[in-house]
């Protein structure tokens, strides 16, 4: 009985920690960022930087596809593409907390996949955590979990959503 009570207390402590951290983090930065004119992702460093006139506005820690090394070659490979793209749309009703669509596949990506007899895939986004996760969102931090997208926390996605207009160039580096 005592072990059950201790286990319950520990679980409730962990749950409340994740809930409080998520709420505090969501309201930590309410000041709007300047509008970005370029997004730079460095996969190896797990960073996404918003740029304006060649200067960094802000850098975020990111999660990538479950197979992050190398360029996306085909649908379902869980790789995040590498190259130059643009933000060509947004989805406020995504199954993730907001989503900015990246213009993958480029014509070169399509040609590469077709030469190999594969489908390049698509729906590569910058997005927040899954909407259904609730307090468990913190378990998505510090690991690669997407199908090839670039993920940040929900509070960070709110900032990025506001600072990055459609048409913004995105450079994804190894």
Feature tags:
174 residues, alpha+beta, L,D-transpeptidase catalytic domain-like, eight-stranded mixed beta sheet, 3 helices, 24% strand, globular, disordered N terminus
Architecture per CATH nomenclature, i.e. the level-2 architecture: Beta Barrel
What summary fits the major beta sheet? 8 strands, mixed
Report the count of strand segments. 8
The tally of helices reads 3
Unreliable stretches, pLDDT < 50, 5 or more residues? 1-28
Structural class: alpha+beta
Strand content: 15-25%
- Mean pLDDT, to the nearest integer, reads 84
Query: What name does CATH use for the topology?
Result: L,D-transpeptidase catalytic domain-like
CATH level-four homologous superfamily name: L,D-transpeptidase catalytic domain-like
Within the largest sheet, what's the order of strands? 3-2-1-8-4-5-6-7
Query: Which shape, going by the Cα principal axes?
Result: globular
Give the class-level CATH name.
Mainly Beta
Instruction: Note the run of SSEs as H and E.
Output: HEEEEEHEEHE
Helix proportion:
25-40%
Instruction: Give the radius of gyration.
Output: 18 Å
Q: Number of domains in the coordinates?
A: 1
What is the CA–CA distance across the termini?
Answer: 52 Å
Explain this structure to me?
This protein has one domain (35-173): L,D-transpeptidase catalytic domain-like (Beta Barrel), CATH 2.40.440. Helix content is 25%, strand content 24%. It has three helices and eight strands. The chain has helices at residues 2-26, 107-115, 154-163; strands at 38-42, 47-52, 55-61, 83-91, 99-102, 125-127, 150-151, 169-173. An eight-stranded mixed sheet has the order 3-2-1-8-4-5-6-7, with helices on one face. The radius of gyration is 18 Å and the shape is globular.
């Amino acid at each position: 009985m005592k072990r059950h009570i201790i286990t319950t207390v520990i679980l409730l402590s962990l749950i409340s920690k994740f809930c409080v951290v998520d709420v505090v983090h969501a309201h930590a930065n309410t000041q709007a960022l300047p509008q970005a004119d370029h997004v730079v992702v460095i996969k190896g460093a797990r960073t996404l930087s918003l740029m304006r006139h060649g200067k960094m506005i802000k850098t975020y820690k990111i999660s990538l596809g479950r197979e992050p090394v190398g360029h996306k070659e085909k649908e379902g490979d869980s790789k995040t593409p590498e190259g130059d793209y643009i933000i060509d749309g947004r989805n406020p009703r995504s199954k993730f907390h907001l989503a900015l669509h990246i213009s993958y596949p480029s014509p070169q990506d399509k040609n590469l996949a077709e030469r190999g007899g594969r489908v390049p895939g698509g729906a590569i986004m910058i997005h927040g955590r899954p909407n259904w996760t609730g307090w468990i969102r913190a378990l998505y931090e510090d690991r690669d979990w997407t199908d090839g997208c670039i993920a940040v926390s929900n509070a960070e996605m709110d900032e990025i959503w506001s600072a990055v207009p459609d048409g913004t160039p995105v450079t994804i580096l190894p």
